[in-house]
Amino acid sequence: MKRSLDSSRHRLRLIVAVAAAVAVLAPAVWMWQASLLPDKYSAMTMGYADYGGGPGEGTTGMHHMSGGATDISTLVADPKRRADVNVKLIARKETITLASGRRLDGFTLNGTSPGPVIRATQGQMVEVELLNKSVPDGISLHWHGVDVPNSMDGVAGVTQDAVPVGGRFVYRFVADRAGSYWYHSHQISHEQVRKGLLGALVISPKGADPDAKTGPDAKTGPDVKDVPALVHVYGGRRTINGSDGDVRVAAAPGEKVRVRVINTDNGPMPVWVGGASYRIVAIDGDDVNEPTSVKGKSALVTAGGREDLEVVMPGDGSGVRIEMAGAALVLGQDIPKSRQPRGFVDLLDYGSPAPLGLDPAKAERSFDYSIGRRPGFLDGRPGMWWTINGHLFPDVPMFMVDEGDVVRIKISNHSGDVHPMHLHGHHVVVLSRNGKPATGSPWWTDSLNVAGGETFEVAFLADNPGVWMDHCHNLPHAAQGLVSHLMYSNVTTPYVIGGEARNEPE
Ligand SMILES: [Cu+2]
Fold first, then answer.
1. How far apart are CA 182 and CA 305, in angstroms?
2. How many whole angstroms from 316 Cα to the centroid of ligand 1?
3. How much of the chain exceeds pLDDT 70, in percent?
4. Of the four, 99, 145, 308, 467, which is 20 to 30 A from 199 by CA?
5. Direct distance between the N- and C-terminal alpha carbons of the chain, in angstroms, rounded to an integer
6. What is the whole-number distance in angstroms between the Cα of residue 482 and the centre of ligand 1?
């Protein structure tokens, strides 16, 4: 009798213990399972539609698909127009040799990394034929900062399939805005960019020296020396144009030099100038209106961002050093290194105001892009993951717009880390930071440094239909789920993430 009572008590205890374990574990198992990404999925069906208070609000069901009229693969540059600039890029998996002779495993374009500087004049049709000789995971090229037609955006699984070994893809777009840009792979980008699939793209204004299409000494305009400075960290070493060590450029007394600083790394980079004052004449490909002379301050170049610094060489023949946090560009005679100034140029009030060409007060849509962090599962992996408006990837907002909308986005960062936010296909103008309105030159940007605790309000005109990534350009962060999309209501993409092409954009 006693024994059977004991045994039933024992059984009861066991049942309670199992029930308790199930109660604790079941939600975790459910969350784990719910986080698993399918073998293939469309960016269009990711997450949930956010209409930002504009038309479409309240729609239910397969909202993203509803319009579905225009296949994005039809969004191309005029196919009848002949190319003015033809470039062939051959991608290989091979050893990269830095200027110092240091070698490391990586990827090259036409045998080098960075790949060749591609130059065009504003208004020209650019055609780039990309061939994958030996990059096993496939490749693609994104034209960072150029607002290309959607099917030329180079995002594997969203705007094209990754180009497999032996495959080719032809990119065609009109270089409609002068400025400093870069190109890089958007297939497994957190690995392929770091390992060298990138290069500079320089679009000179119309009327610039017609012989300036190639070479590092090409001219931006009359009497301005044009020096692209693509900064990239290879194997822990910061380089300028693939050179680990000072890069020397000849410059005569009194000569004007435009240094196009391109930050291809994952974090913001301070840049300062020793031996002369400087002006920030362009940000992310847009000219600054009435830039003023800077001395004793650094410029902070966002990850993925570009700043064009203009320096006038001293008349006494002494040189100038442009320091880029461990790498330096030396113009003319070398001079001693200078210490980094404490302060930074604040782009919020740098330069003079000018018309924006859009009225943010009359925005059709207003979105929140609130970045946080919390524990959870990402594709079955437990960890502390980034969130967008409280949601974990892939359950993130799809920002829905119509062509012609003026759109506002409030980007706020509650995650405790810096995020360089990059919207494809558009340039946004900064309206305010932490509630303080922008009072300087219109600050148009495609790569915005959003530090922990900061809130930016930005606006843009939705004038480029397609499905566009809106993500963090600290590429490991993107791979950790800090990715969302902007989608026009009347488009559809045939491409899928995963699938046979093994598309993996981040
Ligand atoms: Cu980030």
1. 9
2. 44
3. 94
4. 467
5. 66
6. 7
